[in-house]
Amino acid sequence: MDSNSVSPMPELAPIAEFDKSPPSPPNEEVPMDDLPPPPATITQSEGKKKKVQRSRSYESDEHERGACEWCEYALVITLATILLIGVSALTVFWMFFYREGYGWADDIPEKQFNLHPTLMVAGFITFSGFSVLLYRICRCFRRIYVKLLHAIFHALAFPCIVIGFLAVLDFHNKKGINNFYSLHSWIGFVAMGLFGLQYAVGFFSFLLLLICNKGTAGFRASLVPVHAAFGILTFVLGVCACLTGLTEKALFTLGNSTIGEFQTENRVDRYSGLPDEGVIINAIGVTIIAILAVTMYILSRDKFRVKPRDMRVSVNL
After folding, report:
1. Which 3 state secondary structure label does DSSP give 38?
2. Distance (Å, rounded) from C-alpha 123 to C-alpha 128?
3. Rounded to an integer, what distance in angstroms lies between the CA atom of residue 310 and that of residue 58?
4. Could you give the CA distance from residue 84 to residue 102 in angstroms, rounded to a whole number?
5. C-alpha R_g of the chain
6. 271, 317, 315, 307: which is closest to 61 by C-alpha?
């Protein structure tokens, strides 16, 4: 065959012009880091990040509290506890050591009167003081438990106030003394009325309405500042009633008046001469004033309060 008759072969383009990269191994896998995660994974990871951030913010707030602040918190709470318990103990000591103890209708009427200052100090000062400070003392408790303790302390104060009021009312009737004639009785009557109203509204609003928690959340939230304000007002009125009652008792018992309930050797000591019983009465009054000052200081410190953000975080985690 003639070489001129053979058709020439077409020229092929070089392979390197189409793909210059070396071929991939057949078993090589693409790294997962280069692939975008599925939508569900993104949502789940974001949710976890939010929870971690909330947890860290809560813990950082707790760790950021300096040693001085914790010392201040521990000091004032311990001082308030000692004063609240000590004032009732001092009142009981006064009645047993100087006023011959306690009794009721069939006993000496003056012993029945001794129940009045003791129970009023216990109800208006000790139990009510602890009830007011529970939201600062029980920082690590769940809020429902703090509410229950708040209601229990008020429930302990309620019979003390009622029995103390009945004791002095019956004593006045037996002695022929007019009722509700002094400033002490007026302040005490207003304080008792506010205390009963506060207890009824608080028990209904913050405990019974928890049955329908979601439906009453807005109402209960709007009632919290009102309830707290009237609670502090009731406590202050209780302090005023106790102070005026102590002054009245000291003047009637150790003063120049002849209305003294006991004709004992202590009776000849005038209140102006600062007898031993007068020192005890003044010490009780000063302790009550100290309780009011420490309580108001604790309530005024926002750092001692459990913030709502911290409580929401503790529930979600």
Report:
1. coil
2. 6
3. 6
4. 22
5. 37
6. 307
* Alpha carbons 116 and 162: distance in angstroms, whole number: 10
3-class DSSP assignment, residue 277: helix
> Would you say how long the chain is, in residues?
317
Q: Quick: pLDDT tens for 265-292.
A: 444 458 888 899 999 999 999 999 999 9
Interatomic CA distance for residues 235 and 151, integer angstroms: 15
Q: How many CA atoms lie within 13 A of 77 on its CB side?
A: 16
pLDDT at 50 over 80: no
pLDDT tens digit sequence for 60-81 = 444 445 788 888 888 999 999 9
The torsion of the CA quartet 83, 86, 90, 96, rounded to 10 degrees, works out to: 160
Residue pair 198/265 in contact by the 8 Å Cβ criterion: no
Chain centroid to CA 79: 16
List Cβ neighbours of 165 (8 Å cut-off, separation of 6 or more): 116, 120, 188, 192
Residue 218: per-residue pLDDT: 80
Whole-angstrom Cα distance, residue 230 to residue 201?
Answer: 11
Q: CA 314, CA 67: separation in Å to the nearest integer?
A: 23
CA distances for 310 relative to 22, 65, 101, 127, angstroms: 59, 14, 49, 28
pTM of the entire predicted model: 0.72
H helices present in 207-275, as ranges: 217-254
Residue with tokens 């191994």: 25
Q: What's the rounded Cα separation, in Å, for the pair 131 and 227?
A: 13
